[in-house]
Amino acid sequence: MADTSWPRSPSRRRWSMDRTSWPLPCGTFSANLGATMAYVRASQYLLPTWKEDPADADIPSHRLMLRAGMIRPLAAGIYTYLPLAWRALRKIEAIIREEMDAIGGCEIHMPMVHPAELWAKTGRLLDFGPQLVRFRDRAGRDMVLGPTHEEVVTDLARREIQSWRQLPLMLYQIQTKFRDEPRSRGGLVRVREFTMKDAYSFHESFEDLDRYYPQVYQAYLNIFRRCGLAPLPVEADPGLMGGSGSHEFMLLNEHGEDTLVQCERGDYAANREGAVAVKDADEGERERPLEKVATPNCYTIDAVASFLGVPKRKTAKAVFYRGKGELVFVVIRGDLEVNETKLARAVGTTDLAPATEADIAAVGAVPGYASPIGIRGDGVKVVVDDSIPKARNLVAGANREGWHLRNVNFPRDFSADIVADVAMARDGDRCPRCGGTLRVKRGIELGHIFKLGTKYSEALGATFLDREGRPRPLIMGCYGIGTGRLLAAVIERHHDDQGIIWPASVAPFHVFVAVLNPDRPDHATFAVRVAECLDRAGLEVLVDDRERTAGEKFHDAKLLGIPVLVVIGPRALAQGEVDLERRRDGARRKVPAEPDALAHGVYDLLRAESS
RNA sequence: CGGAGAGUAGCGCAGCCUGGUCAGCGCGCAUGGUUCGGGACCAUGAGGUCGGCGGUUCGAAUCCGCCCUCUCCGACCA
């Protein structure tokens, strides 16, 4: 039972009903109603900190969130948020709500369970693949767990938006989503069940979407800045439906789940999936006649290049995929790799899969010695990377086991259905903007904004009457932020080897009051006065009144990373002073043990914190 | 889905090769006492179907088979 020297925690005055005045069955329950409390007592809170590092957490945010008692795993990529994490998450959500409301967002809440039929209409029941969790309800209806909400929100818009006078409109929600990721990793960085702020805007014209999109872009920067993060906006893959733009906000981080390309001079940054690099031409080299050469046991580019003594960039590589029911035959310079995202866009399909040897043989090509020269034309689409037209006198397969061709040139020796950039940008490549050096980096994708266009409104028949009275499909944008991932990213960015260092804006509490001798009534009484006065000053306070040694409390204070530590102990109290310590830099100061001085001292440290 | 690793008390781990005093250690937890400003100390104690199922054996945490789960790397990621 709680000791009697502590008064019950009082309710906040600003609540219209004083909940502690209700006849509660047991006094201790009132202390657990966190939201109504003026301050929180650690002894009556769920704060399961660990002294030792967990065995299977490798990245800092994951390790620290487990150690600080913020999250606990339930299954792979599925976590419970404990009180500390939930408080921080609510701070993040509050910032997001303010910024979304500021650009005209209307918060709604959509269902998590959707009829599969809706997803069938947009084709994504198939496109989404096994990440989309499906099940049947008791009546046998096919349902899915929502991995995102374009379908549902567009269905809503179809029903509710009839006129251009209702536009533009921006709807958003903060909601749980489920994607059965093939691989969750890194704690909250990449999970299967996650909370996401997803927003959708509706416009009468592309011009209006183009006007609105930069506002969202700016709102996103505001959100991340207020959370203490400065992500790099990068150009993202605009996807099959075109649209005129998409950006991701990437926090550079070695543990990131995503890969991006950035120019050292800083004028170009793109997701690796869409990154473009300059491809050099073989300037001034004359085309030489085709020549057949024996190349026994040379099934790879490496083998051919070393056998013939030519650099890999003087070879042409054949790569095969299946897509849209036909074979996709990609010809690319031997030193480059195929970027499947770019390829899918070039071909105009969403489903590309590596081809089997039988697929390859069916069009007359020989695996290992495949060549675009002399293959059968029907049922095969030849995609030539734009590195090939710029190159001269390449070594390519001869479609005959053990033989290659020298001096292959495009378009002299073979033709293409499509010539496009389908190559993966590499570290060290040259920037398409300035010719500078490109670097491949890891990052955490904090947010993604996207000009959707009419993909969903057309598929679902969401039309409105324009100013001339003609029905037209709604023009849409969509904008997402993974809130749990953002929380993890804040910790990735703000920690040291001793624990988390919260930015004050998202800290679960502002002040950590360590009561070194909670069993001494005078100390306990004083701690309550301190907590109450800090509360009245508008600060959120966690009072560590647990029966622990001083050392443990100091270590936990570091681990939890609450911005300001107030130490209530005999040494300071004897002098009528309390010690304050700032988490970020360890700066300490003593202030008189009376309310105003204390609150001012804490605010001073917090102010310097945020500057 | 490929590659690698791991499941033994709440957490971190040893034991496994070589089957039989191997159900153990540290932390944590409970009780009592001493401490009390930077992860204290003493004493006592609770807590485990050794991931599951099957097999080998007189006997299995230990050997064999199948399965499950988790972590990391890769593939994948509107």
Q: Summarize this, please?
A:
27% of the residues lie in helices and 28% in strands.
Cα end-to-end separation? 43 Å
Radius of gyration: 30 Å
Shape call = elongated
The CATH homologous superfamily of the largest domain is termed Bira Bifunctional Protein, Domain 2
For the biggest sheet, the summary is: 9 strands, mixed
> Would you identify the regions where 5 or more consecutive residues have pLDDT less than 50?
8-36
The percentage helix is 25-40%
User: Any guess at the CATH architecture of the largest domain?
Assistant: 2-Layer Sandwich
CATH class of the largest domain: Alpha Beta
CATH topology term of the largest domain: BirA Bifunctional Protein, domain 2
Number of alpha- plus pi-helical segments: 16
| Structural classification | alpha+beta
Beta-strand share of residues: 25-35%
Number of domains: 3
What's the mean pLDDT score? 88
Please give the number of β-strands.
32
Write out key terms for the chains shown.
RNA-binding; 28% strand; single chain; Rossmann fold; 611 residues; alpha+beta; nine-stranded mixed beta sheet; 32 strands; 27% helix
Provide an overview of this structure.
With 611 residues, this protein is of the alpha+beta class. The chain folds into three domains: 19-53 and 64-81 and 509-610, Rossmann fold, CATH 3.40.50.800; 95-114 and 148-276 and 438-483, 2-Layer Sandwich (BirA Bifunctional Protein, domain 2); 291-420, YbaK protein. The chain is 27% helix and 28% strand. The strands form eight sheets. Strands 4, 8, 9, 10, 11, 12, 13, 22 and 25 form a nine-stranded mixed beta sheet that branches. A six-stranded mixed beta sheet has the order 1-29-28-30-31-32, sandwiched between helices. The protein has a five-stranded mixed beta sheet with strand order 17-15-16-18-21, covered by helices on one side. The protein is elongated, with a radius of gyration of 30 Å. The two termini are 43 Å apart. 43% of the residues are buried. The chain binds one RNA strand of 78 nucleotides through residues 48, 50-58, 73, 75-76, 124, 127-129, 131, 147-148, 150, 179, 181-183, 185, 190, 239, 257-258, 273, 340, 350, 445, 448, 450, 452, 478, 480, 514, 516-517, 548-558, 567, 569-572, 579.
